[in-house]
């Protein structure tokens, strides 16, 4: 009965078409890389997937704006972060601090802006450790990455429109639209005034915690350390009450995903096999995302493990996924510690004021 209820819940919330579209964008990039014998197209697949995640789903205009904003912002910020890190760990840490804190500040302006910005910051913490050898060639992968972002945008807006007439179903006069826009603007300004202090605290906490994770994995020489910085970015919430359950969900989802990754990696040995295996995994990652963060992470883990294998095959798959699990747990622990150490009194005072 419980399984039946869960399946019914999944059927109600999962958007399989959205998942298939995101999976198609990423898988096509990997298949193109196979045809061209270009492992760097793994970056195009990652860009396509992240662009799909950053997509606003309410109107066609917001969808296009969110996808293009993410494509441009993540490419530019990722390139600047990579360049800064080429001067050493200290400059890389400073770049991470600036990029992540700026992304955290966008939460003041709403969930849509924060979604784009935090995913762009995720691109920064993943790209920061990519070796840069100087010259235009050192940044060539950014062009491939941007191509993947733009391909996902074109697929969503021009080629495969899942709800092409959705924006025409809500017929309103221009007067009603103007009143609604003014009302939303006023509400945003009120929210901005009330959240600006809390938003600044959260942004600094997020930036400091992510930078601590970056420095920790480099000083300890931990392999695949970007999994720890990504965990901080995606786990840390404005309050400890929100961070704790999210860290537990990420830990459990990572364990399940790691088991899936080990099983599939033993079967998918060639780039073509990896490209084929990535399609259902990314499709399920996107489609089942509304069911909860733990489910999302469970399918996200093997997806990125396989894409990483595509770009740079690893000899010891077991140690690779184990290192990924350890870094995720490290990042989650840093996120929880940050909520308890950095400005913990602001949350308590806010609760007292509400009560």
From TrEMBL:
* InterPro entries from the UniProt entry: Memb_transporter_dom
GO CC, sorted alphabetically, is: plasma membrane
Task: Write out the transmembrane intervals.
Answer: 68-101, 113-132, 138-160, 212-236, 256-279, 291-308, 328-346
Where does the record say this protein resides? Answer: Cell membrane
Task: Tell me the first and last residues of the signal peptide.
Answer: none
Q: Where is the Integral membrane bound transporter domain?
A: 212-337
Membrane topology, as annotated? Multi-pass membrane protein
- Pfam families hit by this protein: FUSC_2 (PF13515)
Q: What coarse category fits the chief subcellular location reported for this protein?
A: membrane
Keywords of this protein's UniProt record, alphabetized? Cell membrane, Membrane, Transmembrane, Transmembrane helix
- What family name appears in the similarity comment? Belongs to the YccS/YhfK family.
Name of this chain's protein: Integral membrane bound transporter domain-containing protein
